[in-house]
Automatic annotation (TrEMBL), chain A:
It comes from the Archaea. It comes from Haloplanus ruber. The active site is at 97, 99, 288. GO terms for cellular component: DNA-directed RNA polymerase complex; primosome complex. This is DNA primase small subunit PriS. Keywords: DNA replication, DNA-directed RNA polymerase, Magnesium, Manganese, Metal-binding, Nucleotidyltransferase, Primosome, Transcription, Transferase.
From TrEMBL, chain B:
It comes from the Archaea. This is DNA primase large subunit PriL. CDD domains: PriL (cd06560). The keyword Repressor does not apply. Coiled coil: none annotated. Residues 244-331 form the DNA primase large subunit C-terminal domain. Heterodimer of a small subunit (PriS) and a large subunit (PriL). GO terms for molecular function: 4 iron, 4 sulfur cluster binding; metal ion binding. GO terms for cellular component: primosome complex. The keyword Iron-sulfur applies.
């Protein structure tokens, strides 16, 4: 990045911070702070700072207008100590990172930025469902990362002192890693006999059970031959087994509700396993494991600007998420008021602020948010107006 | 001093420690005066290191006072021995003993066999002790203790105590997590409490005994004991190495696991039997070839991790008899089992005996 571009961006980031006042996380004085400045174009992070090193945060942001701003998920006795060992770890928020780069089935080369972000928001909703329905977490902060995804900060009582191994268990649950699918059906003694039951009380068993129930509801409404067809589409279920399953489940709502798969015969196990696989594919969230298991991680401060997009790292209320469009709602209002002149080196289409811009190579005037987006991504440089 | 007999059985309780402090008893004086509590402390540590329990060999020999006071002195001894393995083994043995006593006490509680002469611990006292009173809820008395969801444990408390290495059933992903709570069976709750005890005992160990006049005198007075314990520990650490692989001389527990192995051994059992075989120098391929039932898809990972000694002795040594007992894998013990504390010792002894008998021929 050349000097003119750097100066321009740093100046405009400073302007943004003059009217923005990012909300601080709980216990800011116990956190480690870090930032990457614009100077020298380096990507070296200034870290191991306490909030007292920054002074007033709003003032610091206006003065320094950093390229990226971070705080630690952890709380420390002495957050400004130069080495991690000397900081005195006290606990850490439970943090999740969803990054469009890591979404299964989404090829970053083949889809647009907007499509990638939409897929990421779907994953976010799956993650929130797991965190709220299964884990019962209540103190959940959702943040658009300003780049390619979302962060979730959980600060419920009891999470702070979980160690890395415990956090890995949370990750494995969310991703259904090492799920014992066969174990979802267990044998229970019922009055002298045994009965095979799908676990309905919670966990991946309950989620599979929900899917089984809605599958049965769907099949119940179908003509007999179509119902059989739906069932025989599964591996290991032939017409005989399909018939047993239809007799057992479709005609016996109570059995399905209780998760009793005994009457379904050998086909029931196949069906449950297939539905469990569907459940896992549809309901897990591809969170980035190291972010969650690293208890000393720095994470972007909500309300600051992402130096690789010019978008706001935006905290989202729970009821905002459905309608949130990052390419509109995370565009700083300050960068939407005028147009500026840039030299484009990497042309292409940019979707931003509710519009689609086809940007050619060479010097031209574009809306400032588009200019900032291209410059921060290294696709354009600033030229004289 | 006539302590609450409950403290004698569970000397790691906060109240037990407070009672010791209130009695204003000086460990150095106990040591110099040859108090029986010191003898009991010595036994406590020795049994912990050798046999995986801290229960006395002859309970009638010791008073409640000896039992209670032996605990802080045992902690001093372990600190002076100052070997990581000693702290681990000691904490595990205290936990194991407490676990066995708790199971007895809770069972008596359930069956309403409360005896007036023996004070029993009750569950709520223990939950309270480890700040779990708010985190654990009894769900259904009527379903009985064996119900898989007899209790619900807050997920954060569960994650703090449960160790994924205990087996696939303990992995959070395989639990019926709902609304922030993990349903657990009664015996699983006891296992979690055992872990809470282990951590309580291990925390703060080893501590610095020397550095004050009293501390230096104490360390000097206990010097012979510490040396003896270190020797015993070193001797125990040197498990015999047996190069030959003769399955018919394997201990009964390992033989039973190999007989049962058909791809679905519980994780702890698969770990135990693989660790035993790896310790004889077998690798995953050799194991899979001879015992295809162990080749459950994770064998090669397990064998690799177990064989990785990280330069300083195996990271995951083959489990001892005490561990095998805890997991219910100690089966069909025979006469030789009476003389050993580790399946590998059994095997070494069996091989040695067989060699003796052949060379005598």
């Amino acid at each position: 990045m050349d000097r003119r571009t750097r100066n321009y961006l740093s100046g405009r980031f400073g302007d943004y911070y003059r009217s923005a006042d990012p909300a601080l996380p709980p216990a800011p004085e116990r956190r480690e702070w870090g930032h990457i400045p614009w100077t020298s174009g380096s990507t070296t992070m200034v870290r191991h700072q306490s909030i007292y090193d920054l002074g007033d945060v709003a003032d610091f942001l206006q003065r320094e207008a950093p390229r990226h701003v971070y705080f630690s998920a952890a709380r420390y006795d002495d957050p400004g100590a130069g080495s991690m060992d000397d900081k005195g770890w006290q606990g850490a928020d439970l943090v999740f990172d969803l990054d469009a780069d890591h979404l299964p089935g989404v090829d970053p080369e083949a889809v647009t930025y907007a499509e990638m972000l939409a897929a990421c928001k779907d994953a976010l909703c799956r993650l929130l469902d797991l965190l709220e329905t299964d884990f019962g977490f209540e103190d959940v902060t959702v943040v658009f990362s300003g780049g390619r995804g979302y962060h979730v900060h959980v600060r419920d009582d009891g999470v702070a002192d979980l160690d890395s191994a415990a956090r890995r268990e949370v990750v494995d649950y969310v991703r259904a890693v090492d799920l014992d699918v066969e174990g979802l059906v267990r044998t229970r003694a019922v009055g002298g006999a045994t009965r095979r039951e799908l676990r309905t009380g919670g966990g991946w068993g309950r989620r599979t059970h929900h899917r089984l129930r809605s599958f049965v509801t769907d099949v119940r409404d179908l003509p007999a031959d179509e119902a059989t067809e739906r069932l025989t589409a599964f591996d290991g279920i032939g017409e005989g087994r399909a018939e047993t399953l239809l007799d057992a489940f479709v005609d016996n709502e109570r059995a399905v509700e209780r998760g009793n798969v005994e009457a379904g015969g050998p086909g029931a196990r196949r069906l449950v396993e297939a539905l469990a696989a569907e459940t896992v594919a549809a309901e897990t969230a591809p969170i980035d494991e190291p972010v969650t298991t690293d208890t000393r991680r720095l994470i972007r401060l909500p309300g600051t600007l992402h130096g690789g997009s010019g978008l706001v790292v935006r905290r989202l209320d729970r009821d905002e998420i459905d309608d949130f469009d990052p390419l509109v709602d995370a565009v700083p209002e300050r960068f939407t008021r005028r147009s500026v002149r840039v030299a484009v080196t990497d042309p292409g289409t940019v979707e931003l602020d509710g519009d689609t811009f086809t940007v050619d190579a060479g010097e031209q005037t574009v809306p400032e948010c588009v200019a900032v987006f291209l410059m921060t991504r290294g696709r354009a440089r600033k030229v004289k107006e | 001093m006539r302590p609450d007999p409950l403290y004698a059985r569970y000397p790691f309780l906060d109240a037990a420690r407070a009672a010791v402090q209130a009695a204003d008893i000086s460990p150095p004086r106990l040591v110099t005066e040859g108090d029986p509590a010191v003898d009991r402390a010595r036994e406590r540590v020795e049994r912990a290191l050798m046999s995986g329990t801290v229960a006395p060999e002859t309970p009638e020999r010791w008073s409640d006072r000896d039992e209670l006071l032996s605990y802080p002195i045992a902690r001093i001894l372990v600190s002076l021995v100052d070997v990581p393995a000693a702290v681990e083994k000691y904490a595990d043995a205290e936990a194991e003993t407490a676990f066995e006593r708790l199971r007895t006490d809770f069972a008596a509680d359930d069956a309403e066999l409360r005896s007036v002469s023996t004070p029993r611990a009750d569950l709520s006292t223990f939950l309270d002790e480890f700040d779990l009173d708010g985190a654990v809820r009894r769900v259904a008395d009527e379903r009985g203790g064996s119900a898989p969801d007899a209790f619900r444990v807050d997920v954060t408390a569960y994650l703090r105590l449960a160790d994924p290495d205990w087996g696939a059933d303990w992995r959070l992903v395989n639990r019926d997590l709902a609304d922030g709570a993990v349903p657990v069976a009664t015996d699983e709750l006891h296992r979690l409490l055992r872990e809470a005890v282990r951590r309580r005992v291990a925390s703060g160990l080893p501590f610095e005994v020397r550095g004050s006049t009293g501390g230096d005198a104490l360390a000097a007075a206990l010097d012979d004991d510490v040396t003896a314990l270190r020797d015993r520990l070193a001797e125990r650490e040197r498990l015999p190495s047996v190069e030959t692989v003769t399955p018919e001389r394997f201990p009964p527990c390992i033989q039973a696991l190999l007989d049962r192995a058909d791809g679905d051994l519980p994780a702890h059992s698969a770990f135990a039997v693989t660790a035993f075989l790896v310790s004889l120098g077998l690798d995953a391929d050799a194991i899979a070839e001879r015992w295809p039932g162990l080749d459950d898809g994770n064998l090669s990972y397990r064998a690799t991790v177990l064989a990785d000694d990280g330069g300083g002795g195996s990271q995951y040594p083959a489990p001892s008899c005490a561990t095998m007992q805890t997991f219910g894998d100690c089966v069909n013990p025979d006469e030789r089992c009476e003389t050993i504390d580790h399946p590998r010792r059994y095997y070494a002894a069996a091989v040695a005996a067989a060699e003796r008998s052949t060379s005598d021929d």
